[in-house]
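Field reference: sequence -> structure
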Amino acid sequence: MGGRVRDDQSDARRRKDAHEHLLDHLRPGRGARRLGVPQARLGIGAGADAREELLAKEKEYNLKIIAAEKSGDYLAGVKVVIESARKEQVLDATMEGPILLAKLAPGTYTIRATSDGQTLTRTVTIPAQGLRRVDFRWGTSK
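Structure field:
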């Protein structure tokens, strides 16, 4: 993926190049209703150290969500809600950058991601071991 980073909350951020401003730092999920789900989010920004930190942190999680436009432009400000098969909400967060990592109990989950008022839904099964990657891609911006 390449291109620009788009943040629904700031026109200035929409113009930043993803290669220069993709990974600022890995932040523990804050300001989100976590309901006991460990998570980490990548903010917008650049740095080889942040990429290395992400690769190291990925091993601690079993779900990786990536948000981007179909053009390849990364997104931030995406609202993510994850529900268990029992319709219990396990995570309600806003992505600070294009990647969100979470550690869920094995099972089936419904993930709803909303960007610019458009919600995409995916059903995912989290295995007992390994990392499950879920990509959300939206059409071009208005």
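Note: Residues 4-132 form a domain with the Immunoglobulin-like fold (CATH 2.60.40.10).
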